[in-house]
């Protein structure tokens, strides 16, 4: 079970540490890109949504056997993101071969309302 995989950094962007095993985050000028290993799950088992500046990922598979103590694979994580840095309404996710890939686009710096350039005299 995974919980809070990250927190916002002082500049408002996502901070990739501490990442959980099976989670990989990479941030570039355009987006935050997540790769989450979810073996045993297909896209019908995974839900991804954004709420109150958080990206939430949950997945629950089906029990493979009736053996006692054999649980279905379950994954859960929440990533706190700064709503003024990321385009929360444009998140894209793809599930293929047990790997979830999520792209959270960034707001271009010139479009951000919380960034002000100061003229130096």
TrEMBL record:
- Alphabetically list the UniProt keywords: Stress response, Transit peptide
What the entry lists under PROSITE patterns is as follows: SHSP (PS01031)
Instruction: Tell me which InterPro entries the record gives.
Output: A-crystallin/Hsp20_dom, HSP14.7/HSP23.5/HSP23.6-like, HSP20-like_chaperone
Lineage top rank: taxon:
Eukaryota
Residue segments, region Disordered: 1-20
Asked if the record carries the keyword Transit peptide, the reply is: yes
> Which intervals carry biased composition (Low complexity)?
1-17
Q: Which family does it belong to?
A: Belongs to the small heat shock protein (HSP20) family.
Q: What is the protein name stated in its UniProt record?
A: SHSP domain-containing protein
Species of provenance: Aegilops tauschii subsp. strangulata
């Amino acid at each position: 079970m995974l919980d809070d995989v990250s927190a916002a950094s002082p500049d408002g962007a996502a901070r990739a540490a501490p990442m959980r095993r099976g989670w990989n985050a990479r941030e570039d000028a355009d987006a935050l890109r997540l790769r989450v290993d979810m073996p045993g799950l297909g896209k019908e088992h995974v839900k991804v949504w954004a709420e109150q500046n958080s990206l939430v990922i949950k997945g629950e598979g089906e029990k493979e056997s009736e053996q006692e103590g054999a649980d279905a694979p379950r994954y859960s994580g929440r990533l706190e993101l700064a709503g003024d840095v990321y385009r929360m309404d444009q998140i894209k996710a793809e599930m293929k071969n047990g790997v979830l890939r999520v792209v959270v686009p960034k707001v271009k710096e010139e479009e951000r309302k919380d960034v002000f350039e100061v003229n130096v005299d």
